[in-house]
Amino acid sequence: MRAADGFTGRANSALTCGDPGMPIPDALRAVQGFAREHGIKPTAHVIKGSPPEPEIGAAGWIVDLDHPGGAESLVMTGPLEKFADGVAESRDLPGWWELTAGSEVSAAQRHVLGSGGNVCFASITEDGVVIAAVRGAVVEDLLHVARLAVRPSHRRQGLARRLMGELAGWGLAQGATTCVLQVAEHNEPAIRLYEELGCTEHHRYRYWIPAVS
């Protein structure tokens, strides 16, 4: 179970992998208790088609169709060597945070985005302004990619592809071989980009919540 003041679904949900050591209904009640203690919405991160999914539904939980990130997301993976181009420089710039997390960055956001292994805050700037940004974190041989963003005024210029290539180069230099990323199923442009880079779908997941709070 994880809590981070509501920032991102992943950091504020219970990951339903493995044996919880108790019946599923009891485990879900524990999730609800944990959520109350931390002031967050009780949420279970469930891999689509996984063994716990039917039991979670039978316990009175439903897919969160109103989840801010979308009701269903893909986890995609791909070899870094296929699209590495250059090497990103990690720069902890105020503009990076503003573009990826908003104008007022909370302590929880800094904790979530600043932790998780060897982290890279990659960006592209123009006249001192961050116009594209992405976060990478190397854990063992995996480069976890998140928060890819391009300012609306600079989209459709290949900046996302360029930044992904530079981040892949950074990941290779840190010993990673494979990228892992998450993308909402409705974000078709991003999915096309990742597919063009050589990424394929590994699995899907959804967030489940109690039908009655």
UniProtKB/TrEMBL annotation:
Q: Where is the signal peptide?
A: none
What protein does this entry describe? Acetyltransferase (GNAT) family protein
InterPro entries per UniProt: Acyl_CoA_acyltransferase (IPR016181), GNAT_dom (IPR000182), Rv0428c-like_C (IPR056935)
Gene Ontology molecular function terms on file: acyltransferase activity, transferring groups other than amino-acyl groups
Gene3D superfamilies named in the record: 3.40.630.30
Domain N-acetyltransferase, chain residue ranges per copy: 75-213
Please list every transmembrane segment annotated in the UniProt record, as residue ranges: none
Task: State the UniProt keywords alphabetically.
Answer: Transferase
Pfam hit, one: Rv0428c_C
The organism encoding this protein is Lentzea waywayandensis
PANTHER family, alphabetized: N-ACETYLTRANSFERASE
